[in-house]
Amino acid sequence: MFTGIIEEIGTIAGIRRTGPMFEVSIHAEKVLKDVNLGDSISINGVCLTVTSFTAGKFSVDVMPETVKATNIGALQPGSKVNLERAMAAGGRFGGHFVSGHVDGTGIIVRKERVENAVYYEIEVGEDLVSGMIMKGSVTVDGTSLTIFGLSENTFTISLIPHTMEETIIGQKQSGDMVNIECDMIGKYVGHYLRGTGLGQGQKKTSLTKSFLEDNGFA
């Protein structure tokens, strides 16, 4: 479990490919202070497992499915990445519930400076938009952000100077791909209301949007 509050920007040290999978090594500092083998670290919003580490570098294995579903496959030596350790049970919770399981990718279609903020409009599929709401939370390359604009196939976020400086999103331009994770709570609620993806022995819910509206809950 993560919060979407980026701890540091790491640098890809090397990539060793073995068929459809590969091993990535990353230069870092802060996330290595208390690292252990098997720890989870979010890399651009993707939860990956530490397989080895030294004083200034750690490595992770990336499976084919992760390459297909995220922008990890586009990384090269020297690429910058957002890093966050898994949340400590006794730590402060500064962002929102983030699983590190990316729902899909988006493409930045507009970057605009407005006074001290920078607006990013990101194009995504309708399946991702359906999991978003105005002023709701979204994770972009592992960074917890708030949605303040929404259309049929895009959403808009606003970055303050601190976020521009402390995450890799500030370096992104129009045409760049980003990893997207929709709000975890919203996904579970939407799944329950739709009654989709039912497992064996489960029944479709009778709780509907109309029921909620009729009873004053929506």
TrEMBL record:
Pathway assigned in UniProt: Cofactor biosynthesis; riboflavin biosynthesis; riboflavin from 2-hydroxy-3-oxobutyl phosphate and 5-amino-6-(D-ribitylamino)uracil: step 2/2
Keywords: Repeat, Riboflavin biosynthesis, Transferase
Lumazine-binding repeats: 1-96, 97-193
Gene Ontology MF term list: riboflavin synthase activity
Catalytic activity: 2 6,7-dimethyl-8-(1-D-ribityl)lumazine + H(+) = 5-amino-6-(D-ribitylamino)uracil + riboflavin
Domain (Lumazine-binding): residue spans on this chain: 1-96, 97-193
Enzyme nomenclature, EC number: 2.5.1.9
Example GO biological process: riboflavin biosynthetic process
InterPro entries reported in the protein's UniProt record: ATP_synth_asu-like_sf (IPR023366), Lumazine-bd (IPR001783), Lumazine-bd_dom (IPR026017), Riboflavin_synthase-like_b-brl (IPR017938)
Short name of one Pfam family: Lum_binding
Subunit structure: Homotrimer.
Function text: Catalyzes the dismutation of two molecules of 6,7-dimethyl-8-ribityllumazine, resulting in the formation of riboflavin and 5-amino-6-(D-ribitylamino)uracil.
PANTHER family, per the entry: RIBOFLAVIN SYNTHASE, RIBOFLAVIN SYNTHASE ALPHA CHAIN
Protein name as catalogued: Riboflavin synthase
Lineage: Bacteria, Bacillati, Bacillota, Bacilli, Bacillales
